[in-house]
Amino acid sequence: MRPTGKLHLGNYMGALANWVKLQDSAQYECYFFIADLHALTTDYADTSQIAPNTLEVVLDFLAAGLDPKRCTIFVQSWVEQHYQLPLLLGMITPLGWLERVPSYKEQQENLTGKDLTTYGFLGYPLLMASDILLYQAQYVPVGQDQQAHVELTREVARRFNQYYPKVHNGPVGTFFTDVLPPPQVLLTPSPKLPGTDGRKMSKSYGNTILMTDPEPLVRQKLKTMVTDPARIRRTDRGDPDKCPVGDLHKVFSTPETLAKVYEGCRSAGIGCIECKGWVANALVQVLEPIQTRRASFSEPQVKEILEDGSSRARVRAEQTMQQVRAAMQMTLTGEANR
Ligand code: SF4
């Protein structure tokens, strides 16, 4: 997650809630990090907000229920291997692969005001590939829109493994494995979550409900939320399937409330203000335990969690880097670790 500041409900439902489930399943050894080097690819001219935003994002991680005892939470730039692997991968990655990444052109067009004709911005997919490959990750939990990035990571890993020998990974006579195993996508559900203006909830649209918003603010934001445009007067019938408030109900309300919304909206039996009040109640219920957990962490505690997580990440990443250096024969003896 990039350090963009306080996270909103779209971030929570699209990523954090799924991460907590993965952690709780105890099926996976999970690594979650603040991608501050990624932030530099676009915000290199003004880095003043990266540190304060990092703190806010980690607090939101912890508030959502990530537990540093059961997963590793770290800062990307505190783990020096994240500077090393992208450089080595850059040696073998054809320029065309990077130029073809859809977000490369898109972001250059969208983020006008910023000069993105930089080496760092073009190489951003290799930072991302390294984030995954340094941990020899089997799975990357992403939404559909991120699949292209994981595919590029797979291509880069395959290319590396073609050039450089496999390493011995067990007692003599057992088996050899690829140094950089191509990861699989673990598709995570990301429900449609509209912002207060009906567009996708996003910080850049200014239409968010933050995980830290207090109850009165949540209620106030919902009051101004757009509704089914066909329902102009109280007596007009509406359709929750054409209303952003209806979409929020589908994600957060109980089946009973949802049934009342469909019935009341389609028969004009309820007004939009009442309907919005119900969804506000559901949101406040979701947010209350999150905000209580957030308040239980102090800044020194967060720093300690990050230092501890970054140390653990460094140890794991270094294991991979030793295999990478050996495979590339970048050792004093020039011998590959066959
Ligand atoms: S009653 Fe609810 S679902 Fe129907 S238009 Fe109003 S806010 Fe939307």
Percent of sequence in beta strands: 5-15%
Given the helix and strand composition, which structural class is it?
Answer: mainly alpha
Residues in helices, as a percent range? 40-55%
- Over all CA atoms, what is the radius of gyration? 23 Å
Largest sheet: 2 strands, parallel
Bound molecules: iron/sulfur cluster
What is the overall pLDDT average? 93
Number of helices: 14
The total count of strands amounts to: 6
Compressed to H and E, one letter per element, the order equals HEHHEHHHHHEHEEEHHHHH
CA(first)-CA(last) distance? 36 Å
Side by side, the strands of the main sheet go 1-2
Describe this structure as you would to a colleague.
This protein has 338 residues and is mainly alpha-helical. The chain has helices spanning 9-25, 36-43, 50-64, 81-92, 95-99, 102-110, 119-122, 124-133, 147-163, 215-223, 244-252, 255-266, 272-295, 299-327, and strands spanning 31-34, 72-75, 139-142, 167-168, 176-177, 184-187. A two-stranded parallel sheet has the order 1-2. A hairpin with a 7-residue loop joins strand 4 and strand 5 (176-177). The longest helix has 29 residues, at 299-327. The chain is elongated and about 80 Å long. Iron/sulfur cluster binds at residues 227-228, 231, 238, 240, 243, 245-246, 261, 265, 270, 272, 275-276. Residues 227-228, 231, 238, 240, 243, 245-246, 261, 265, 270, 272, 275-276 line the site of iron/sulfur cluster.
Salient structural properties:
single chain, 338 residues, mainly alpha, two-stranded parallel ribbon, 14 helices, 6% strand, elongated, binds iron/sulfur cluster
